[in-house]
Amino acid sequence: MAKHNKTVHVVPSGDGWAVRGESGKDSTFSTQADAIKAASHIVRDSVAGQFVVLRHDGKIVKHVTHGLPKVQDPPGKRGGKKKIQNAVGRVALERFNADPHPARG
Amino acid sequence: MPIPIRHVAETVNSNDVFINCPFDYGYKPLFDALVFVIYDLGFVARCAREADDSGEVRLAKIERIIRQCKYGIHDISEVTLDAVNNLPRFNMPLELGIFFGCRSFGPKAQKGKVSLILDVEQYRYQKFISDIAGHDIRAHGGQPDQAIIAVRNWLTTASRRSNIPGGTEVVARYARFCEDLPRLCQEANLQPEALTFIDFSNVVAGWLKTSR
């Protein structure tokens, strides 16, 4: 059975940043840099994973993979791409905030 | 500033996969699955639909995209008689021929092109396009999941990349994506049934970055 949670999310939380990995438990950090460092460790310790940093508006500001292919950007103009990917990011944020212990699969 | 002809002829992107398939509504479940698996494996899906608004002549556009793609997926499953005119649909074999011709007669950079031919049954092609025997031909039985696995297995071998996820993992992820698609479209103010190829590709890429 394939694992379904390969993404570690780094999202704004209060005055700081929250990191949630496969375990579903959150860790919070006062700076984005520290949160990214923690997410990076979690992903590097996994066989295959990725972390994504989302802003309040859903914008994907960083996406790093480890043992997984990097997701390429589609061809075409940047404007539409940003609008759609921000919307997708907002849905991911919505899920993150709605479900404290996600179990997907 | 115009790009020198030599430069254009030798630009082949090792991440780009040309999809040669029908664009009608009946084929959409297979088409969406092909686009998804291509992005999930770290490649870029390209097709004639990527620049619908340009004034470029259709065949010239197809030739340009083929020239830029290292990989080609050619689905000949719908090379059937048209219900209205009772004539066969030749666009897919035509584009398959252009892809093969580009590899055979193009400059050195084009020689590394690789193709996967998909059909509904494994040996049906022998009845109408037998000259392609010896190429990589796989059957999908009209099933998106089978198409995903065929593309995954072929791209893994053809690209020799080691970080490609397993077929069943991609299939499971695609099922989750399909469940999420209506909500993603709602948030992006798009109609799921009227998504353009580029919009759909962006939804897929965004979802894979946030939800794999």
Q: Which series of helices and strands of chain A comes N to C?
A: EEEHEEH
Biggest sheet features of chain A: 5 strands, mixed
- Mean pLDDT of chain A comes to 87
Helices and strands of chain B: which structural class?
Answer: alpha/beta
Q: Which range does the strand content of chain A fall in? A: 25-35%
Low confidence ranges of chain B:
none
Indicate the proportion of strand residues of chain B.
5-15%
**Got a strand count of chain B?**
5
Strand order of the largest sheet of chain A: 3-2-1-4-5
Order of helices and strands of chain B: HEHEHEHEEHHH
If helices are DSSP runs of H or I spanning 4 or more residues, what is the number of helices of chain A?
2
Description:
The complex is a heterodimer of chains A (about 100) and B (about 210). Chain A is of the alpha+beta class and about 100 residues long. Chain A contains 2 helices and 5 strands; from the N terminus they run E-E-E-H-E-E-H. The longest helix of chain A has 21 residues, at about 80-100. Chain B is of the alpha/beta class and about 210 residues long. In chain B, strands 2-1-3-4-5 form a 5-stranded parallel sheet, sandwiched between helices. The N and C termini of chain B lie far apart (about 40 Å). The model of chain B has no long low-confidence stretch (mean pLDDT about 90). Classes of the chains: A alpha+beta (about 100), B alpha/beta (about 210).
